[in-house]
Each structure stands twice: as structure tokens, then as C-alpha cells.
Amino acid sequence: MPGIVELPTLEELKVEERQRMLDEFERELPDFIGYEEAGEGTRLPLRSLLSLVMVLLRRSPDESHSSKVKVSSAVLKAAAHHYGAQCDKTNKEFMLCRWEEKDPRRCLKEGKLVNGCALNFFRQIKSHCAEPFTEYWTCLDYSSMQLFRHCRKQQAKFDECVLDKLGWVRPDLGELSKVTKVKTDRPLPENPYHSRPRPEPSPVIEGDLKPAKHGSRFFFWNV
């Protein structure tokens, strides 16, 4: 339509930015070659160094990139019950991994699944129940200390909307706090408790040990 300009998407902007940085690095490449030929004592152009660092640290566009869930505390609190029910297994698998591995690097895969579940959850709410959900979290945001008791009417409308359009039932109080077993395909680590290695027992003393000549030395005299 005339008068309407189509803006590029975020992914297209990332690809264009990365290509621009690569082109700039290729233009500065002779400076690197001259630096290597001259050896030590030649100053490396700052612009070339920055370009190299940016290219090396920049993720390629075909890599899996996880977007952040950019919502406020009121939005999280309003959606907490339904989110906990819909992403229960994913969250518990992530927490089990964090507890067993004691290393965040080993749980990046589970963390991405948690992030993806949260994004999908809020996208569904935005597509089907945006208006009642906005009224609900806005009420919580403006209420004293974000208490639920001040927003029961908005909560009922939101629960009714997700039940009719998504089939989600609001969990009962305390249901998400129950102790449950998590079934996961991740292998159990060798030392899940990260216990210290047990000390080796003292070696057996070899030889014929005879009793002390003057008896016990516990007291300075013998009884």
C-alpha cells in the first residue's frame, strides 16, 4: 500500500549488522597482515582490534538464540499459577539438573527449554486472553503490595478466559508445592552429592610390638 514502509525484522537486522562487521574486518585485514610481518613493536590499529573481537564474540545467525522473557514482576505474579502448571515438568527438570550437577554450564540445554516454555506460555496468553490478563496484572501492579485479594474479579475473568480458550485449570492452593518425582532422560552424575573422597585407612604396623617397660605413661606415677 502507498505510504506504508515495511520495516526489517530483528533477525534481518542481526544478519545485516554481522555482515557489516565482517566487511569492516576484511577491509582492516591488511593491517593485521602488516602487523604480523613487522613482528613485535608494531602497534595494532584499535579499530581492527575491536572489529576482530566483535566478530569473534558475535553469534552466527543460524545459532539457536534464546530470547529473554521481558516482563515485570506484576506480570509474573499474575501468571504464576498457570505458568507453574503448564511448565511444571520443564522447570523441575532444570532444578534437578542444577541440584545434581552443581554446574550451570551442564544445564544450559534445560535452561533453554525453561525459557522456551515461558515464551510459548506468554505468547498463548497474548493471542487468546490479552485483555483480561492485562486488566488482571494491572490491578495487581496498582494494588497495595500486589495482593491477590484486591483483584479477585479480574482474576476470575482471566481464569475463565484461559479455561474456555486454552483449557487451563487454575491449580489449587498448595498443589504446585507438593513433593514430586521427576522422570528425566539425563544420566545420573557419578557423584551427585559431590562428597569428598574417603581417606585411606592407616596402614597396619608390621613387627612384634611389646608392652611398655614401665607401664602406662598416662600418669607420672604407676599405681
From TrEMBL:
Quaternary assembly: Complex I is composed of 45 different subunits.
Any Gene Ontology CC annotation: mitochondrial inner membrane
MF term (GO), any: protein-containing complex binding
PANTHER family membership: NADH DEHYDROGENASE [UBIQUINONE] 1 ALPHA SUBCOMPLEX SUBUNIT 8, NADH-UBIQUINONE OXIDOREDUCTASE
Keywords per UniProt: Disulfide bond, Electron transport, Mitochondrion, Repeat, Respiratory chain, Transport
UniProt function note: Accessory subunit of the mitochondrial membrane respiratory chain NADH dehydrogenase (Complex I), that is believed not to be involved in catalysis. Complex I functions in the transfer of electrons from NADH to the respiratory chain. The immediate electron acceptor for the enzyme is believed to be ubiquinone.
CHCH domain residues: 129-162
Family that this chain belongs to: Belongs to the complex I NDUFA8 subunit family.
Keyword field contains Electron transport: yes
Gene Ontology annotations of biological process type: mitochondrial electron transport, NADH to ubiquinone
InterPro entries in UniProt: CHCH, NDUFA8
Alphabetized PROSITE patterns for the sequence: CHCH
The protein, known as: NADH dehydrogenase [ubiquinone] 1 alpha subcomplex subunit 8
Compartments reported by the entry: Mitochondrion intermembrane space
Taxonomic classification: Eukaryota, Metazoa, Chordata, Craniata, Vertebrata
Coiled coil: none
Region spans: Disordered: 185-204
Superkingdom of origin: Eukaryota
